[in-house]
């Protein structure tokens, strides 16, 4: 199971195009999008090359690989232009070893308000635009950061393969890695 995880594109055609290059290069089985795909939101400045329809067209090109959750900026109109479901508050994936990956945007559940996840699993979220890769209480907290409006210095995404999460800059350069905690 190879998963590319990205969040907070916020309608930037430029950085979505760079994400599409990473998707093509990484060749994941699944692209997991953690919300805030098309709209920039009232608290954010317009991202570079703001063009939500171009972002929708780019992402629709990967529709057969995408699993997406709703961010706080998603609206029903977004679903009208996206060819994959994007309105679920969360999704759960299970890896080959039976470990749960709970994926959400981060505005409903977050590290301060976690849903139940069995030890050895991971909590995947976006929303803060800040990368995170750390274990707490037997759960790995994973935030891929933001594709277009980072609040921690670099545009980024994450990869998951064989129980290992990698944080990468949008250029593809590796920033950090961490294994899922051992099953207890």
From TrEMBL:
It is an enzyme of class 3 (hydrolase). Gene3D superfamilies: 3.60.21.10. GO terms for molecular function: hydrolase activity. Its EC number is 3.1.4.-. The keyword Metal-binding applies. Keywords: Hydrolase, Metal-binding. Residues 1-161 form the Calcineurin-like phosphoesterase domain. The keyword Hydrolase applies. Its cofactor is a divalent metal cation. Belongs to the metallophosphoesterase superfamily. YfcE family. This is Phosphoesterase. It comes from Raoultibacter massiliensis. The lineage of its organism: Bacteria, Bacillati, Actinomycetota, Coriobacteriia, Eggerthellales. The gene is yfcE.
């Amino acid at each position: 199971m190879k998963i590319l995880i990205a969040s907070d594109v916020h309608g930037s055609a430029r950085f979505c195009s760079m994400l599409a290059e990473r998707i093509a290069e990484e060749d994941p089985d699944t692209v997991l999008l953690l919300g805030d795909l098309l709209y920039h939101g009232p608290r954010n400045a317009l991202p570079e090359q703001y063009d939500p329809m171009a972002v929708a067209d780019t992402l629709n090109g990967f529709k057969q690989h995408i699993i997406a959750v709703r961010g706080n900026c998603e609206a029903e109109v977004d679903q009208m232009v996206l060819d994959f479901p994007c309105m679920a508050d969360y999704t759960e994936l299970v890896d080959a070893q039976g470990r749960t990956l709970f994926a959400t945007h981060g505005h409903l559940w977050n590290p301060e308000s976690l849903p139940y996840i069995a030890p050895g699993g991971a909590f995947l979220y976006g929303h803060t635009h800040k990368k995170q890769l750390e274990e707490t209480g037997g759960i790995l907290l994973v935030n891929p950061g933001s594709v277009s409006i980072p609040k921690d210095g670099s545009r980024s995404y994450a990869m998951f393969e064989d129980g290992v999460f990698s944080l990468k800059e949008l250029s593809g350069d590796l920033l950090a890695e961490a294994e899922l905690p051992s099953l207890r």
